[in-house]
Every structure is written in structure tokens, then in C-alpha cells.
């Protein structure tokens, strides 16, 4: 097992993740320590399984939230507790097995080499990836790059990434947004506005079918409505910040 880091940890927000969650957590622990799972009000029995797993692993911590509040809320709880414990950076990954645990050390090394940056996974899709999801994210990516004056966001939606905790915590505590599915894209845009530079690393992503244990909480109409409202807000913020962004870009 890897040595326990005092600065970088893995945070896995988890809500009714399905049978892949234990494999996901074990795979993350095989690559890094510590790993924290933030259980966001799950009702599928996975909480008890995760707590049982942690009984035999001192580098695995399970934080159980009483009700489902959204991915962003779970991450905020995780980074707040991590900051209080002295951690400076957090790698976030999904609990459903889609993200490549084997790349955790590479992403952490990139973060340690450039601690002021955020390290973003840039998804490499396999042939089974749903075309609607693959093509639909291009819209969000286009808006995110416009809203940051092309600071270099490789992908705005892929949640496998390393954040510097202090600026992310400060940004999230200063507004009431970024609490649900809008967390990932809004986080990278607002961090870019705060001067946190993105570093992109290719990373595979796999979509599991239901018969393979795959679980998706994505709802096309609900979540695209949320993203539309988010980008409307961000574009207004972009216009307000445009002189500063231009000045920063050409310094």
C-alpha cells in the first residue's frame, strides 16, 4: 500500500453508486492514501458496506451526510474537513468506476510539481461511450473556454481532477451555487477567474451499461437546464471580468 500523504488526498463523493463503489474505493486505496468517501445521503445500502470496508483500513475514511445535497455539497464538506486537517490538495473522482484509479499517482505528481495549478482530466472515450454524452459536452466546453478567455480548459465536465483546496473552498463559500451537477464546470471557470491555471492530462473514461453494474444519475432535461442557467450566470460574470481577463492574458 502507498505511504500516507500529508498534503494530497483523494475525495470520492458517493450517492447511490451501485455495486461498483467498493471496487472503486479499493482501486483508489491501492494507488493512494488517504482516501475519503463522502456519502451524500445514500439509501442503497452502500453506506454500511463502505463503513465495514473502513473498519480494516486506517487510511480510508467514510464521512456520512444525513441527506442528499448534491455532488458539489459533498465535495465542499470533504475539502472543508480536509483543510481543517491540514491537507492542501484534493483529487476528486466518481464512485461508479468510470474514472481511472491507476492514474491517481500521475495526477498527484503533476499537482505536487505545480501546486498552484489545478490538474484536469481530459477524457478519452471508448467505443461504448454514449454519443449524446460525448457530443453534448462540447457545448459546455465551448462556453467554459469562452468564459475564461481560453485559459486552456481541456474538459469542463470530467470530474477526475486535482484541486488546490484553499481557493476552491473560498470560492464555494462565497456563493450559493456549485452544489449539484453544476459543480465541475463552474469550479474550473471560477478557479480560472481566480488565477488558478489548468493543467490537462489525458485520462480514459468508461461508461458501464446497467447489466455491468453501471448507475447514472444524469437526467437530460433537468441537468441541461441546470447547465444552461449556470452558463448564463457565468457569462454575465465573464463580461464583468473581461477587462481583467484580457489584461491577465497578455501580461
Q: How much helical structure, as a percent, in the residues?
A: 40-55%
> What ranges have pLDDT less than 50 throughout 5 or more consecutive residues?
none
Query: What would the principal axes of the Cα set say about the shape?
Result: globular
Number of E-type strands: 7
Distance between the termini: 45 Å
Q: What oligomeric state do the depicted chains represent?
A: single chain
Radius of gyration: 17 Å
Q: Biggest sheet, strands in spatial order?
A: 3-2-1-4-6-5-7
Structural class of the helix and strand makeup?
alpha/beta
Give, in order, the helices and strands: EHEHEHEHEHEHHEH
Strand percentage, roughly?
A: 15-25%
Could you characterize what this model shows?
The chain has 251 residues and is α/β, with parallel strands linked by helices. 44% of the residues lie in helices and 17% in strands. It contains 8 helices and 7 strands, in the order βαβαβαβαβαβααβα. It has helices at residues 21-31, 46-54, 71-84, 104-113, 131-147, 165-173, 183-193, 220-249, and strands spanning 8-14, 35-40, 60-65, 89-92, 118-125, 161-164, 198-205. The protein has a 7-stranded mixed sheet, with helices on both faces. Helix 1 (21-31) links the parallel strand 1 and strand 2. Helix 5 (131-147) runs parallel beside helix 8. The protein is globular, with a radius of gyration of 17 Å. The N and C termini lie far apart (45 Å). The mean pLDDT is 91.
Amino acid at each position: 500500500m502507498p505511504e500516507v500523504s500529508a498534503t494530497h488526498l483523494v475525495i470520492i463523493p458517493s450517492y447511490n453508486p451501485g455495486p461498483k463503489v467498493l471496487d472503486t474505493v479499493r482501486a483508489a486505496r491501492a494507488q493512494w492514501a488517504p482516501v475519503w468517501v463522502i456519502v451524500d445521503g445514500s439509501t442503497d445500502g452502500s453506506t454500511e458496506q463502505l463503513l465495514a470496508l473502513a473498519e480494516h483500513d486506517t487510511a480510508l475514511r467514510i464521512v456520512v451526510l444525513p441527506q442528499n445535497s448534491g455532488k458539489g455539497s459533498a465535495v465542499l464538506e470533504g475539502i472543508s474537513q480536509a483543510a481543517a486537517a491540514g491537507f492542501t490538495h484534493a483529487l476528486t473522482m466518481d464512485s461508479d468506476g468510470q474514472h481511472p484509479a491507476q492514474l491517481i499517482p500521475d495526477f498527484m505528481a503533476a499537482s505536487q510539481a505545480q501546486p498552484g495549478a489545478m490538474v484536469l482530466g481530459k477524457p478519452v472515450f471508448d467505443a461504448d461511450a454514449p454519443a449524446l454524452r460525448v457530443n453534448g459536452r462540447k457545448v459546455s466546453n465551448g462556453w467554459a473556454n469562452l468564459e475564461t478567455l481560453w485559459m486552456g480548459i481541456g474538459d469542463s465536465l470530467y470530474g477526475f481532477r486535482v484541486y488546490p483546496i484553499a481557493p476552491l473552498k473560498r470560492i464555494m463559500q462565497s456563493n450559493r451555487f456549485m452544489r449539484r451537477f453544476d459543480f465541475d464546470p463552474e469550479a474550473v471557470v471560477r478557479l480560472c477567474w481566480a488565477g488558478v491555471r489548468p493543467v490537462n492530462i489525458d485520462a480514459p473514461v468508461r461508461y458501464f451499461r446497467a447489466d455491468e453494474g453501471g448507475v447514472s444519475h444524469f437526467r437530460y432535461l433537468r441537468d441541461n437546464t441546470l447547465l444552461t442557467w449556470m452558463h448564463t450566470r457565468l457569462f454575465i460574470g465573464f463580461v464583468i471580468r473581461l477587462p481583467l481577463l484580457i489584461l491577465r492574458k497578455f501580461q
